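Morning run. Coffee first, then this:
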Amino acid sequence: MPVDGTDVLARTPLLAGLERGDLEQLARSFRERAFPAGATVTREGETGVGFFVIVEGTADVSVGGEPRGALGPGDSFGELALIDEGPRAATITATSDLRCMALSAWEFRPFVQEHPTVAWTLLRTLVRLVRDTGA
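And here it is:
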């Protein structure tokens, strides 16, 4: 079933503060990705370049082999990879068939460079997320 990418992104905490027009433009850069139940979507410690928003399905989050929570539709992961392309902070494993919207760092970077207000909104959102996690 087709998904309205703009609406999905508008409900994603990292992007929720963006203007509708910016979200519409950004949504066109996302690609759909599917993972079967049991698939490892990201692996802790490996280099990452993608950001994912779950459209359908569920996934578990683990750090150091310890469970850290579950993700479902509307949840996202990989936001740090959009900025530094560094190692993944967690392993994400699909617990059901998973359908995601995915964006690579090399697609995201030019968008942010062309839209400085987006960069500021994202910085504020990331700071809030870091504060909320107590990191």
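The helical segments are 5-10, 20-27, 79-84, 105-114, 116-133. Good start to the day.
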